[in-house]
Amino acid sequence: MNNLYSKYFLKSNIIILIIIFFFSFFINYYYSSLGVFPIDTFFHYDSAARILSGELPIKDFWIVSGFIIDLIQSVFFKIFGINWQAYIFHSSISNFLISLIIYYYFQNLKISKFSSLIFTLSFSTLAYTISGTPFVDHHAIFFLLASTILLIKVIDTEKNYLWFFITLLFFLSFFTKQVPAAYTMLAQGIIVFIYILFEKKFLIIKHLILNISFIIFLFLSLLFYFNIDLTDFYIQYIDYPRSIGSTRFLNFELTLNDFFNNYKFIIIPVVLIFIFKFKKNFNSSKEEIYSFLILCCFVLSSIFHQIMTKNQIYIYFLIPILFGVLFKELDLTNHRFKKYFSILLLASLFFITLKYHIRYNENRKFHELEGVNFETAIPANKINKKFYNLSWINPSHKGDPRNEITMIKKGIIYLEREKEEIMLFTHYLFLDSITKKKLNYPTRSFTIDGASMPVEGMKYFEFYKNFLINKIKSKKVKKVYFFKQEGISQNTLTDYLDTACYSKSENDIFILFELKCN
Q1: Where are the alpha helices (DSSP H) in 32-135?
Q2: Please, is 308 exposed, middle or buried when counting C-beta atoms within 10 Å of its C-beta (0-12, 13-18, 19+)?
Q3: Distance from C-alpha of 126 to C-alpha of 141, rounded to nearest angstrom
Q4: Using an 8 Å Cβ cutoff, are 513 and 480 in contact?
Q5: What are phi and psi of 84, to 5 degrees?
Q6: pLDDT digit string, tens, across residues 34-77
Q7: pLDDT for 401-459, tens place per residue?
Q8: Which of 54, 99, 180, 198 has the fewest Cβ atoms within 10 angstroms?
Q9: Is the whole-model pTM more than 0.85?
Q10: How far apart, in whole angstroms, are the C-alpha atoms of residue 176 and residue 140?
Q11: b/e burial code for range 482-491 (CB count within 10 A of at least 16 → b)
């Protein structure tokens, strides 16, 4: 009988894993190909491909975040070739892996397999899928989510070897994007310090010191191996982004109404979980209380980061996690109607998930595609066969997408006929990978809000100016091109050069700067 039960248990787990894989992988795989917002959709495309050609972030092109994604994506390109399928395979498999971790988190909470599966499928729908393509904020927060779950696990089990993976995931998150890792490290660090102090777990300090020292040593060794200057790394990745964050913090404005409207389905379950614990007079075990506080630190850090970035909201994946924890708290009560409350909770989660699925997946709100007519989209393989299965419609382009594709193809032909070394400033961050001509982007993206590079009046403006000029000299660039229809500010070039050092002209596709100075 026991043997029969074990076989059934094993089969049911395998079936559930298969369901999670197919759902989480293919929902992301499908929606990732529905429309483009070039500056976000292709943010890591060319930068990852450039790594395979021997160019490195920080050293060869300016970045402010995201080099861990570039490195991982370069591995996918190496294995599967530089193409759209390899690009979205990365994000789709990431959606599966974090969904799998979430499923086992629910299982550790002793939630039934069926309910755990429901919460996990809701999570998969609202996790990587709202972006679809590899994106810096998603990778960073999912590394952080995995480390948070392990942190909860280590407090429950006291398996000290887990501290290495917790530390590693924190660093991977930080080297993907500096925040929210920095916020969460600070908040959760306080809880961990209290845990060590009051529970007299001083051996943890030894593990943390050894793990942090090893990872820092390994990272510095890699910088040395790839000949990346430590000062360049510090300025580009640490100090300059910190100065951007300081400016945003000083200009921070938020109304209570906006806060509640945007995050009500995250805040309400947190409050209800707290009420349930308070009603039990905190008779929960100390481990449960520490775990709850650690989860709260992650949630609040995520909300704070979301508010500070001022981007589209991407943290609605917290809703099924918190509903799952609330579901468990309901199950622990002795209320006679708890069964009906649990059903109501699952039904509420279904409709909330459906709401955000329509807004962010069907309408692609995260990539600014809400309101476009997807029926006018055309296959992106008309640009290049590497973009098989991608439907091209760009909310930044006014008019028929066929005209935009025609313009891009004409631009590629024009650039490939150029005999001299050139530099291109563009939001089409895939062109370097599909043209025969090196386009020598000096930065990963081109905006004038300070998020791409230091602009005039900002800290490190002169440092970036020297960086850009050195790239122009080292690559022997004679001409700099801008696509006219993109409307990228020419200040991204002219603010860093003397007016005597260039002449400007234009044709039907490009604005062209010919460089005259040595």
Answers
A1: 38-41, 45-52, 67-80, 84-108, 113-126
A2: middle
A3: 13
A4: yes
A5: -60, -40
A6: 999 999 999 999 999 999 999 999 999 999 888 999 999 999 99
A7: 999 999 999 999 999 999 999 999 999 999 999 999 999 999 999 988 778 899 888 88
A8: 54
A9: yes
A10: 5
A11: bbbbbebeee
